[in-house]
Amino acid sequence: MSGAIKAKHQRLVLVVIALVALIGAGLLAAWSLRSQASFFYLPSEMVANPPEPDRPVRLGGMVEAGSLKTDADGVTIRFVLWDDKGRVPVEFKGIVPDLFQEGSGAVAEGKRRADGTFVADNLLAKHDEKYVPREMKNMTADQARQVVEQTK
Amino acid sequence: MIANIGLAALWFAAGLALLQFLAGAQGLTAKGGVLAALVRPVAIMQGALIGLSFIVLVVLFWITDLSVLLVAKNSHSAKPLIYKLAGTWGNHEGSMLLWATVMGLAGAFVAWIERRLPERTVLATLAAQAFVSLGFYAFLLFASNPFTRLDPVPAEGMGLNPLLQDPGLAFHPPTLYIGYVGLSVAFSFAVGALLTREVGPAFARAMRPWVLASWIFLTIGITAGSYWAYYELGWGGWWFWDPVENASLMPWLAATALLHSVSVLAARDALRTWTIMLGVVAFSMSMLGTFLVRSGILTSVHAFAVDPTRGAFILVLLALYIGGALCLFAIRANTINEGKQFTVASREGALVFNNVMLSGILGIVLIGTLYPLLAETMGDKVSVGPPYFNSVGAVFTIPMLIVLAVGPMLRWRRDSFTRIRPVMVLPALVAFGAAVICAVAGVALLPLLGVALGMGLAFASLLPLHGRKLRTVKLPVWGMVIAHFGIAVALFGMASDAAFTKERLVAAKPGDTVAVGPWQVTFQTIAPVAGPNWTAMEATLQARHSGGSAKELHPQARTFWAPVQETNESALATRWNGQLYAVLGDQGEDGRWQLRLWWKPFVTLIWYGGLLIALGGFLAMLGRLASDLRRVVAKDKIAYRRMRQGR
Prior knowledge:
The structure holds two protein chains of two kinds.
Chain A (H helix, E strand, L loop, with lengths): L6 H30 L1 E4 L1 H6 L8 E7 L5 E2 L5 E8 L2 E8 L11 E8 L5 E8 L10 H16 L1
Parallel strand pairs in A: 1-2, 5-7
Antiparallel strand pairs in A: 2-4, 2-6, 3-4, 4-5, 6-7
Chain B lengths: L1 H27 L10 H24 L6 H6 L6 H6 L5 H22 L5 H25 L23 H30 L4 H32 L10 H26 L3 H23 L13 H25 L14 H31 L4 E2 L2 H21 L10 H24 L4 H18 L12 H26 L1 E7 L4 E4 L2 E12 L3 E12 L4 E4 L2 E6 L2 E6 L1 E5 L2 E10 L5 E9 L3 H42 L1
Antiparallel strand pairs in B: 2-11, 3-4, 4-5, 5-6, 5-7, 7-8, 9-10, 10-11
């Protein structure tokens, strides 16, 4: 690959290289997004149509009142995320976010184990009105009523 | 009363921007405008007024003038002074005013000092700069007025988000903003050059200091932001591929590519259209980042505005400026000559490769950032995380890093790979050796490649100094070597963190000892403490590294009272070979406290590397400015001599 490329061809060659690289990047991105983007599930959706085990997904719902338990090791917590049509047990090892509590909304990031338990490696909770996980904005509005009824 | 001065200054600045745009445009007409002489002084006035407006806002926050809505919403009289001042830009309106201020000052600076370029190009540049500024002035005045008054005046302000009450905040946003907005000058230069078709080495030399300076600030801003996220969020990570982080990374990638192509243009008069294109893309990425962050479509501590009209406003500005510049590019690009030729095996060839790879990474990050937003409009809620960015990004990053090792050794215009093969053997061997050791130790593929490339690159980046008298090496070469070495250092830190981090999560009571990596950590006591606007439970940990001397760590679980919010303050023990990271969690029902400990070997190299990269940029800029200055002085001397001889 030596010898100067002909003057009028050089720009063409550069354009072609750039286009090939960018289209390559685009295709590569599209292909891997199909397998690696993690989808958001409501508990009812996860019950009705569970994702394959080991696929990273996000699960958002309300933390069921009375379901929050800590294991003997002091760091593994178990709780149930629910909405009006489904309940999913969740297991999480770690320090929970500050506003994580029973009766309020949370998003768990992780994978569904074959036995139906959702193993979360990250938890997001409603921080304050300025910082709400995007997926939870609509959900909490729908479900606040039910939560109030249930905890009455 | 002071608030009105700020608002008036803002209106006047906007008016002057309009005048600057019109006078510049009229000056560019075929007849040559009579108003052209106005452009420079007006640009300087505009910079002074918007600067005044920003200073007024800082003063309002300083004295906590609660009659101003923005102050009442984001400040509190009990807040420490530094956070009162930093609170000026810790909110939507203030940060947009900061944006407009930096843009105005940059324009004023160009008007004041830029004398090398043809006057038409300067006119076009300043007109373009004013045109972009106008959009942001309109946004400020009609959708985000920082000086809106409040009646009746409240007794106390609502305070600042505690996550933002950190020394990092005083420093991080302005740094990033100067970087973002500094690229607006490169954008305006590019648009100006498209209008006048005057692209060449002189143009590149005028544009380069702006690109370099913006790039330095972006590098520092990203490095600082990463460290801030690392110790403030308490999650032990330093980069989360959060859309907001990507919003700052994308302009950096584009600016890095631009920085290299503008160097080719300055040195060899090649890559003309490509440089112009990158000038447009780099600032477009800044604006896109601002749109993503400020429109409220993202969930983040950075997303201040949850007001759809503002998002729509920024989107319109974005479409107008990016679309307009790309159209102009499409129309004019063909009329610019491509410039000098080169072969594949040459410095230019390597830099083109680097540019294409950087653009590829930029594309990958852009697609990964925008995809969730597009998917949501079609009803799918998805998020894209590290598995995508790390693995797909690596496809472009690794070839780029290999060329980074080789490229600086190649000569301009025409060279051969066989000539430089002998000197490249050592770095290749180092990389290979590191890879073998990591493979034996069972390190995963990506961290393994990171460690190997980092080690090899650290050697290769120093090769341009090989066989040269160090005292005669010019500053820009030092800059390049140090910046490339910084890349190697940061890469090694990232890979080491990914490969060798040890983590422990336990519930412990005072008196317990926990082992993590080479550390023995003893949980000694826990006690309440209080700060100016918070109270906390503070643990005292005694950490001992392999039986060495003990260090005390004090992680806290803090509760702020204005506004009420809890945060976990991590505690760090730093050694030369890494950091111990401790987070205090909640107390369980049995009285034990959750403790999360990480031992992160060489993690600090990530940020030291970032600082080295910025230092390299700084040296390069010093060198370039010094030689520019010498050139100006020499020209003046010649002119002076001619004048005397003429007499």
